[in-house]
Amino acid sequence: MRPAGRRNSQGIRIDPEAEATHQPRKAVLSTLVNHEPGVLAEVSGLFSRRQFNIESLTVGATDDPEVARMTIVIEEPEPGVDQAKKQLQKLVPVISVEELEPEAVQRELILVKVSGEKPDDVNAVADMYDGSVVDASPETITIEITGSQQKIEAAVEAFDQFDVQEVVRTGAAAVERGADVLEDTRRKAEPISETGETPQTATDD
């Protein structure tokens, strides 16, 4: 009996039941990785091989110079989201992976370059989205805006009337609300003695 399910372009068979019952959803994966050459290529290569649908991927330094943080936004059915997290965890440079809650704080920065023919109108629209002009000439005006994905997309649509020349988006940066933090799982708590005190290293007097 032949197994059910179509194959993707890599020949991997897809469970038809899972594909039919799970609609794609957006997931934000916050990932701590070793801050070393080649990590970004390794992570992006994994997503390319597995054909995960990436909306954005950002990476930057943390308070620890040896650790970087990646924020990866994907749109996949539930099985695909679970698989993405599992595959990330298997990579040697990856320290920890966590899917953020939908209400997590998410921000994105955008630079929009438009025609400079109507500067007053451009400034008025920029003010509507709390934007600021970072460069201006008789030919073009460049506006910087920071906000949620919804705000950014609405701003791009609003500026479309001014003959958009260029759009540059950073992708999402995100953190959980409140006291929740993404922890470095390699950091082990120091052992506690039976007296409840942390053992001290012996030193010569």
From TrEMBL:
Annotated Basic and acidic residues bias: 179-191
Keywords associated with the record: Amino-acid biosynthesis, Branched-chain amino acid biosynthesis
Domain of life, per lineage: Archaea
Keyword Amino-acid biosynthesis: yes
Listed Pfam families: ACT_AHAS_ss, ALS_ss_C
Protein name, UniProt field: Acetolactate synthase small subunit
Family (UniProt): Belongs to the acetolactate synthase small subunit family.
Pathway: Amino-acid biosynthesis; L-isoleucine biosynthesis; L-isoleucine from 2-oxobutanoate: step 1/4; Amino-acid biosynthesis; L-valine biosynthesis; L-valine from pyruvate: step 1/4
Entry-linked InterPro entries: Acetalactate_synth_ssu, Acetolactate_synth/TF_NikR_C, Acetolactate_synth_ssu_C, ACT-like_dom_sf, ACT_dom, AHAS_ACT, AHAS_small-like_ACT
GO term, biological process aspect, one: isoleucine biosynthetic process
Lineage: Archaea, Methanobacteriati, Methanobacteriota, Stenosarchaea group, Halobacteria
Species name: Halosimplex carlsbadense 2-9-1
Claim: Thylakoid is one of the keywords in the record: no
GO CC terms in record: cytosol
